[in-house]
Amino acid sequence: MKELKFIKVLSYLPRAELNRLHKFLVSPYCNSNPLLPVLFNELFSGSSGLKEGKVDKIKIWKKLSPQKGFNDPKWRKLCNDLMNAIQQFLIYEQLNKRPLMADNLLLEAIYENNLETLHKSLLNKVESDFKKNNSLSSEFHLQNFLLERNLYNLKEFEINMETQSNLESIHHNLDLFYIAEKTKQLVNAATRRLDFNLPIDINLEEQLMDMIQKNDYLDHPEISLYYKIYQIKKNKNAGGAYGELKKSVLDHLDNFSHQEAVDIFKEMINFTTLQRNQGHSEFEKESLEWYQYGLKHDLVFPNNKFQPGHFLNIVITGIRTKEFHWTEHFIEEYQKIIPADQKHTLVTFSLARLYFNQKAFDQVIEKLRDVEFDELTYNLDSKVLLLATYYEVEEWQAMISLADSFRTFLNRHQKDITLAKKLRYSNFVKFIKRLSRVKYLDKAAIAKTLNEIKSTEGLVNQAWLLEKARSLN
């Protein structure tokens, strides 16, 4: 029901925040409609959170207005009012998280209402708040700019033109805000260009990079860090720049907001992954170390917000670096935050992949033999893994049977799979069957198969096939 869209909004809020929302609604200043707390109480219990089950609007209406029959327009109006109240509450919550912005808004109110008796006593407190804040962000410079502008107004520099004012501080903080934010956004643009080949034209891009280098802005970590990320993305190589960037991130990341730290962490993961995919094997270990750092500092799954891509990448990276014990511990520890509808698939597939690389082939077979995954990609990759396992243990009959059924599976799902993707898996089936039939003494057949595997683009599990073909020589 459209008028109950606030139910979905409420479902995302943690219980502590829902409890604060209830206090907000019962406050006469924050809410003048006495029916809103009643409606909210019908949906939420302070001890157990949002009540489950379908919302019965007729039943709720009887509690809201027991003397009158159900009135649909009024019900819709009430739901809309609650949605508006929730939005106001969320604004209030955000303001509580940003004390420097609250200080500036207070100074603006003092100036607009000409409350001279307040502003002198509050200025010291506000300036102290800013001095205590050691966060690194463009937002901090924005609030500093707004503070200096408020001081300019409160000290009436506009009237006393002959007095030395704080205009230099106003411009300094405005410059820092613009340069820090612009550099961060240029990293975003560079990522989209590099990863998605998008044509993005940004004004003053080269000029800003040149100005940063020539005007000592690199002394500010919130600028220099993004500047280094931008340069690495633009130059598409690591060199000594990666080492400098890594040191800067490790030295300063704690002073960024948690959300910004998460974003910077993602940039480091993206870069090390790109280097790894380009054949720089030393970045396998770098990727793992960043993931371990991210897990320790709540950057991978912030606030237990699960991301399946990160989970699988960590498993793959742990396997590639042969950190098998650590990887198994990771799967065991972090499966707790996997949503119930994804948990079985991800854990089963991840453990099977780990066991395969540990050469615990019996455990792979036990995990995958009788499993069909709901998601097509996992189904395809699990069949590849099981085929490779049967090959390793020389279960030829089981391997041939699975290979034939896999080919049938690909044909049956050709509407769900692109032609290129189908070819990648079909070629794997073709080559694994051929490898199982090649005579050990038939050097020509082995050489031909090896060359075909090498030259086949996009082949699934190509490295493993090459290893098996070479072992036949």
Task: Describe the structure using short key phrases.
473 residues; mainly alpha; 3 domains; two-stranded antiparallel sheet; 23 helices; 71% helix; 1% strand
Describe this entry's structure for a reader.
The chain is an all-alpha fold and 473 residues long. The chain has three domains: 95 residues, no CATH class; 157 residues, no CATH class; 102 residues, no CATH class. It contains 23 helices and two strands. It has a two-stranded antiparallel ribbon with strand order 1-2. A hairpin with a 3-residue loop joins strand 1 and strand 2. Helix 17 packs antiparallel against helix 18, helix 17 packs parallel to helix 19 and helix 20 packs antiparallel against helix 21. The longest helix has 30 residues.
Q: How do the helices and strands follow one another from N- to C-terminus?
A: HHHEEHHHHHHHHHHHHHHHHHHHH
In terms of DSSP E residues, the strand content is under 5%
**Computed CA radius of gyration, to the nearest angstrom:** 30 Å
3D shape: flat
Count of beta strands: 2
Largest sheet: 2 strands, antiparallel
Mean pLDDT comes to 91
Compact summary:
The protein is mostly helical and 473 residues long. It has helices at residues 5-11, 15-26, 35-43, 57-64, 72-96, 99-112, 116-132, 138-154, 167-196, 205-214, 221-235, 239-252, 258-277, 283-296, 308-320, 324-334, 340-357, 361-368, 376-392, 396-412, 419-437, 443-455, 462-471; strands spanning 44-45, 49-50. β1 and β2 (49-50) form a beta hairpin.
Helix-strand blueprint:
Blueprint: H1 5-11, H2 15-26, H3 35-43, E1 44-45, E2 49-50, H4 57-64, H5 72-96, H6 99-112, H7 116-132, H8 138-154, H9 167-196, H10 205-214, H11 221-235, H12 239-252, H13 258-277, H14 283-296, H15 308-320, H16 324-334, H17 340-357, H18 361-368, H19 376-392, H20 396-412, H21 419-437, H22 443-455, H23 462-471
Antiparallel strand pairs: 1-2
